[in-house]
Amino acid sequence: MTAPLLDITDLDVCYGDFQALFGVSVSVAPGAATALVGANGAGKTTLLRTIAGARFPTSGTIRYRDADLTTAPPHRRIAQGIALVPEGRRLFPSLTVEENIQVGAAAAASKQWPLDRIYATFPMIAARRAQRASTLSGGEQQAVAIARALAAAPALLLLDEISLGLAPRVVEDLYQTLAEIKFAGATMIIVEQDLQRAMATCDHLVCLLEGRVALNAPVANLTRDQVVAAYFGDTTT
Amino acid sequence: MTTVTVSRWSRTATASTAVAVVVVVLLAAVPYVLGGPAEQPLITLLTFVAMASLWNLLAGFSGLTSFGQHAYLGLGAYALYLVAAHGVNPWPGIAAAAVIAAVISLPVSMLVLRLSGGYFAVATLVVAAVFQIAVTLSPSVGGTTGVSVPGLAGYSPVLREALIYWATLVVAVASVAGVYLLVRRTFGLDARAVGSDPVAAASLGVRVGRSRRLAYLIAAGGAGAVGALIALQTLYVEPTSVFNVQYSVYMLFMVLVGGMGTIEGPVIGALVLFGLQEALSSYGAWYLVIVGGLAAAATLVASRGLWGLVSERFGWSLLPVGYRVLPKRKA
Amino acid sequence: MTWVNAVIQGVLLGGQYALIACGLSLAFGVMRIVNLAHGDLAVCGAYLGLVLSSALGVPVWVTLPLLLPTAFAVGALLQVTLFARALRHGVLAPVLVTFGLSVMIENLLQEAATSDPRGLNGGSLALASFHITSGITVSWLFMTAFLTACAVLSGLQLLLSRTNWGRQVRAIADDLDTARLVGIRVRPLFATVAGIAVATAALAGVFIGTIGTFDPLAGANTLIFAFEAVVIGGLGSLWGTLAGGVALGVTQVVVGQVNQAYAVLAVHLLFLGFLAVRPTGLFTAPSSRLGALG
Known about the structure:
The structure holds three protein chains of three kinds.
Chain A: E1 6-15, E2 18-28, E3 33-38, H1 44-52, E4 59-64, E5 67-68, H2 74-80, E6 82-85, H3 97-104, H4 115-121, H5 123-126, H6 138-150, E7 156-160, H7 168-183, E8 187-191, H8 195-201, E9 204-209, E10 212-218, H9 224-232
Parallel strand pairs in A: 3-8, 3-9, 6-7, 7-8
Antiparallel strand pairs in A: 1-2, 1-4, 4-5, 9-10
Helix pairs in contact in A: 3-6
Chain B: E1 4-7, H1 11-33, H2 36-61, H3 70-85, H4 90-112, H5 117-136, E2 147-148, H6 157-184, H7 186-196, H8 198-203, H9 208-234, E3 236-237, H10 239-242, H11 246-258, H12 264-280, H13 285-301, H14 305-314, E4 324-327
Antiparallel strand pairs in B: 1-4, 2-3
Helix pairs in contact in B: 1-6, 2-6, 2-9, 2-11, 2-12, 3-4, 3-5, 3-9, 4-9, 6-9, 7-9, 11-12, 11-13, 11-14, 12-14
Chain C: H1 2-31, H2 38-56, H3 64-88, H4 93-113, E1 129-133, E2 136-139, H5 140-162, H6 164-174, H7 176-181, H8 186-211, H9 218-233, H10 238-258, H11 263-277
Antiparallel strand pairs in C: 1-2
Helix pairs in contact in C: 1-5, 1-8, 1-9, 1-10, 2-3, 2-4, 2-8, 2-9, 3-4, 3-8, 5-6, 5-8, 6-8, 9-10, 9-11, 10-11
């Protein structure tokens, strides 16, 4: 059994008086794609942002490649190989496509994903590299957001709802690209509302319900009904 | 199942209101009991209290950090001169000055309230500069030399001093009580919501513009009244002294050190400033260095001010403006 | 011909205003801080120039290689110790703290230097002038100030658009939260931006002190003019700041031709007019970054 790439133990995360995560424990094996599902407000974005370092947990640990990153600032985590594609894309509107991607490499520890390779992976944005990010379509912006995270040459890529607001065809293309990235060796955690796609793309599934882990198992061992039950907190199954 | 009640008052509040009333009555008796020497320092202190409470309405409750309130102080002083020069009795003249200041602040508010935060602050400095320059360019109000305030020749000095004292007391009490009553009404909740997050407040239906404008007008009117008092006190109105940014520095200090966003805070801040002024008056510019430094330090170190430190520690609220959730007492 | 002369002088004066304003604009655009002590820091630059040039017995220009890095260091230090802390206490805290700082600086200068107006030793540059035509004389000093302003603005623009530093700074200005998330190290960048802001202010102060006189309380008016240039020119636009400065300068000199007493008032009224009619300034599209004004 290989050592996990990411090992989260007993994580509690609070926003002031409001607790968003309760004792969350998740392990991610290297090279695996883990789906993170759950209703709105379940804590998925909070979990990803805590892994990326935007928030620090009130208790619990985050171990990555055997180093304790629980209170490390974001730039250290990027240097170690964790990168987040944030919910809502959050591109820098006044920067061009190319500048957005370059900025993503700010703290990168390696040059595994230089611009050429990124443009080869995302041909649709290569043509727009000098355009302001805010002028792109939704699908193109999402591609740039992923590209920006890739520029950091991450070993662990966190993706928060990349299909939000996009046409099915565009989503299909994005997931194709994700498959290529996974093939190149990246480990991923993907937040996805579309259960079918989540289970089709990923090897492992974690379901959150109101801040707690309701389900945590390999996809192969799960039926869709089990996932739905955990999603809605239906305990009669 | 526990049930709760929402309380806006408390026994402490009743007690402190009673104490406040007694204090005001005692203060009113000062000219009879203690006479002249006691009046002078108290006039200074009460003026501070008024200025601080009004600035707190702007900055503490409405999030409008104006460093140009001295514009309305000067305006009030000159307004008093003008009404007195037209034969109006100086005492109702104070009220007239307040109204004039509030009226003039309305079109000004249309401009400066388009900004917020630091940009609003500098815009208020521009307004003050404009008022001051306009006055120095107007020979009818004495230009750069200034004018002396007419209409008080008929009073004996003792009577005049006492009347100014009572007028100051009235303005101070009106400022504190007025802000207090205003903030306890919906206006107060609206203003504080706008002060913390205008977008969220607007999305809940708060009329953001109206709330800020009302606060700005009231603060201007109050400052006008204080300016009129200053004119009556000094009997001479002159641009550089009455439009002095130092007044705004005092307001900042009193509210920050005393406690922003509370009713008790400005009063405490006024007391502290008064004490500092007495202690450091011979130190020249160092006095203001310390005042400015303490104000900055208060923001960073004790952002709720002295009153905030005390009330958090002991849970006191003498003049409550908020809502408290309490367990319901069993019948 | 005097009108043409006045306009030219006004444009050149505008360069000085742009120089004092660009630091304010940069600090606000990147860090959302309006430094109310900005004008006073410019005046400090003038006093530092006075001290250095008197001590070394040279025109103030020679002291710049020492003065500017010192100003940069002061700015970075202020950011790291004061402004960063203030930002953690909410949006209004920096406004309050910098105002308190302004009061402290003005009064410390008064204690240290008395309120007598001072002038800086500009060497031979301060005295030289050249003629464009008969009737239009331009002082080399004014010209240098204007050209320096253009050079500084160009330099800043280049830094922002062509360098790694500039990209990261623009990213922070767009979205601080996401900038942190992608690994941009915000603290050092803020320090450099604050350093540049104070260094440009100090440079402007040196010009102000050489062209005219300065005293401890001059910072207040300097701040107001800088601020007006930024608002008129449009937030977020460095060249807009130049346009704003020129608008101020031309107004001041042209009105001054008619009646000197009304010159400064006219400038303030121009600003208030812009606030009434086009509050987003000359160079920002009216719908963009409306929230940037506060």
